[in-house]
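Dear H.,

Thanks for agreeing to be a second pair of eyes. The structure we're designing against is below in token form, covering all 533 positions.
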């Protein structure tokens, strides 16, 4: 008997074995199937680059104006030049791992049907397993949502496909309808989905389901052609009323001990939990820590951000174009070597700005490390300023333990407010919506500069400031009609240095990957990618 093979009926001997299977599903956002150093189940040369969450962020930030890279990897160049194909590594990683995760959930649901629980003589844990099944269904819904958002018309594998025929393809609007019904069932009074606080952070709860519905409704016009602004407000309010809190200061949300300090548990509605000891990965927050280091930063501020000045991982890759930095209204950024502190001089006091161009030119170039701006939203310090990375403690100190948010309360605030503006001729009128904006702006230290009349267009820049590198940018630009428009340039958009390109609308979704098209004849490539097989 292989007790780690959760597709085997023999694995389910007691309640803890079911929880172990659920934990495996929960961890699939960061798992890379690695057996030996450098090896992974997708055949990537770099295991860290095969991680789901890392590449999901890349698809949503590097294809836009927020994130650029100078490593020269072909798949990254394709993303930042908007020239990807069906073999792009980021597309392959996100698509394949999402489909695999859905298959894991489907198998778990088969193995946890009531009749099977009874056949094992485990009737006493039926109610507990019902809750586990609900959590698993949320994970399946989230992976399906990501496939819908990124790939439009993905395969639709369900439990009956296991060991049988290839799954059929589902159209985007139909998948939206299925997801809505699934999530509304999970939040119903009859559902076994845990309430907020009933399971340990960061396991999903009814709040997670409502948060996903809020995001779906905000973008419903993109997915289905029909706006759902009132439903977005209602779903957002459901989460807001559950008792989550806007944590202050903002920076603590992205510190190494964000789960221990209480910051994440207060504001994160669902998150991917990283730990340098128990969930080691070169993806996730480790990527954002190390990829923002260059040699000059390593020497001057490595220790300030919790890294050894000598031994810090120095990937020197991720950069922010100057136009995106301008959203934060920075006047200048200075490094004070004498006091070894990271200092800002700002036109405003926006506490969400974490930038330096130390050793770099402001203008980004994909061929130079000394280019663009570096971002320190994620780094190596705890909330009290102590160094989290300690070579004397167990675990790989070069890895990050910062949990990464998927949904947080701030998103619900801005979803509610933007939906209100769109319902009222482009201006926020709801008193609650104004209050939510005020609370976020006060935390950021910029409430004085909040416009007296908040219009729909204002939210695009505010979301850029609030959710930088959290995976929101692509869908935000699409919702606002900016992603393909030549009127909204960014560095190397369409491969043009000044980013003045008019992109084809087919780029609003990614292609189905060629390896799946070759084995599943039920699938038809997304329009515009027909030659990309």
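And this is the sequence the design step returned. I haven't edited it by hand at all.
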């Amino acid at each position: 008997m292989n007790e780690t093979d959760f597709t085997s009926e023999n694995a389910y001997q007691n309640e803890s074995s079911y929880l172990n299977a659920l934990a495996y599903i929960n961890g699939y956002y960061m798992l890379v199937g690695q057996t030996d150093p450098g090896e992974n189940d997708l055949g990537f040369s770099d295991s860290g680059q095969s991680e789901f969450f890392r590449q999901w962020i890349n698809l949503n930030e590097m294809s836009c104006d927020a994130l650029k890279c100078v490593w020269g990897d072909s798949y990254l160049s394709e993303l930042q030049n908007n020239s990807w194909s069906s073999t792009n590594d980021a597309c392959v990683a996100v698509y394949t791992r999402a489909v695999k995760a859905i298959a894991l959930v489907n198998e778990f649901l088969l193995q946890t049907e009531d009749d099977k629980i009874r056949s094992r003589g485990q009737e006493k844990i039926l109610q507990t397993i019902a809750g586990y099944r609900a959590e698993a269904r949320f994970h399946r819904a989230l992976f399906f949502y990501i496939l819908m958002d990124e790939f439009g018309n993905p395969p639709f594998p369900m439990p009956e496909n296991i060991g049988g025929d290839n799954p059929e393809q589902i159209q985007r609007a139909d998948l939206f309808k299925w997801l809505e019904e699934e999530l509304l069932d999970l939040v119903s009074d009859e559902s076994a989905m845990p309430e907020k606080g009933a399971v340990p952070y960061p396991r999903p709860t009814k709040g997670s389901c409502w948060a996903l519905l809020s995001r779906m409704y905000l973008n419903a016009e993109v997915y289905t052609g029909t706006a759902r602004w009132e439903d977005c407000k209602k779903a957002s309010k459901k989460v807001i009323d559950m008792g989550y809190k806007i944590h202050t200061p903002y920076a603590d949300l992205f510190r190494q001990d964000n789960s221990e300090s209480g910051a994440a548990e207060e504001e994160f509605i669902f998150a991917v939990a990283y730990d340098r000891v128990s969930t080691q990965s070169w993806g996730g927050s480790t990527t954002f820590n190390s990829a923002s280091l260059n040699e000059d930063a390593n020497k001057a501020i490595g220790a300030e951000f919790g890294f050894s000045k000598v031994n810090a991982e120095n990937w020197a890759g991720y950069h922010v174009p100057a136009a995106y930095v301008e959203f934060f209204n920075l006047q200048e950024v200075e490094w004070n070597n004498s006091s070894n502190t990271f200092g800002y001089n700002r036109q405003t006091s926006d506490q969400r700005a974490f930038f330096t161009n130390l050793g770099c030119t402001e203008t980004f170039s994909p061929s130079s490390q000394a280019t663009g701006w570096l971002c320190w939203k994620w780094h190596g310090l705890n909330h009290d300023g102590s160094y989290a990375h300690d070579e004397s403690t167990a675990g790989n100190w070069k890895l990050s333990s910062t949990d990464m948010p998927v949904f947080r309360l701030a998103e619900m605030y801005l979803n509610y407010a933007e939906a209100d503006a769109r319902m009222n001729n482009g201006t926020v009128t709801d008193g609650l919506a104004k209050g939510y904006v005020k609370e976020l702006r006060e935390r950021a230290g910029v409430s004085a500069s909040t416009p007296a009349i908040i219009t729909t267009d204002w939210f695009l820049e505010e979301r850029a400031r609030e959710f930088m590198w959290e995976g929101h940018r692509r869908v935000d630009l699409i919702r606002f009609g900016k992603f393909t428009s030549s009127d909204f340039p960014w560095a190397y958009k369409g491969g043009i240095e000044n980013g003045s390109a008019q992109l084809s609308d087919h780029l609003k979704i990614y292609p189905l990957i060629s390896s799946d098209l070759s084995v599943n004849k039920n699938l038809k490539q997304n329009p515009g990618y027909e030659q990309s097989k």
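Two observations from my side: Residues 126-151 form the longest helix (26 residues). The radius of gyration is 23 Å.

Warmly,
E.
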